Request: fold
Amino acid sequence: MMDNSGNLRDAFGTVPHIAPRRSLADEAANRLRDLILLERLAPGTPVSERELADVLGISRTPLKDALRILEAEGLVDYGPTRRPRVADPSIDELRDYITVLGALEALAGEIACSEATAEELEVIERMAAQMDTGPDDPLAFFHLDMAFHGAIVAAAHNAPLAETHRQYNARLWRARFLSSRQVDRRANTLSEHGRIVAALNARDAAQTSAALRDHLRSAVDNVARIRMAAHKTKSKGKT
Reply:
């Protein structure tokens, strides 16, 4: 984690330059998103566009576009001076967003019970099984976790619902990663996934909806617990 006065190059260590692609902005946004998740760019950290462009090996123009993508996702915001910084939303803000996301995923699960194909349910079950056996890497586990949830939403075959879910989920990317990476709570997470899969396979709309809503509620509790622990640690450091 870097403090506000830290140097980006020192914080990142050796970061491969981004190779030219169809969209440098999208690729840069993907790289920055992971760095924010891993807190190599910590919440509240000011972002120097010049240093960051140099670290990633791209010009300022695609970097600005990447920061706009992350701003729309709620991962980056701009202070009074219009300089970018890593967003640091309050637990109340996160709770409000997760409440809405829980309702969206509950609705998606309910619809998926009638609209999902057998093949789609098999894919969802297979993803849950993959999480049961790993991967150990927190970031890889998180991406698989999000793919699991995304597959449920996709199985509802409802484009407006999928788009609304995408927008809200993007704003909760870091919060959901913080929840997902809690190894001591992973058994509970996997148990909740099992309950979701069982309800989907039974095509029980009410149980699927309830299981998904409860699962997102657990994420709120996890993030609140992490924030509380971080606040206590910071307070001790000042005494």
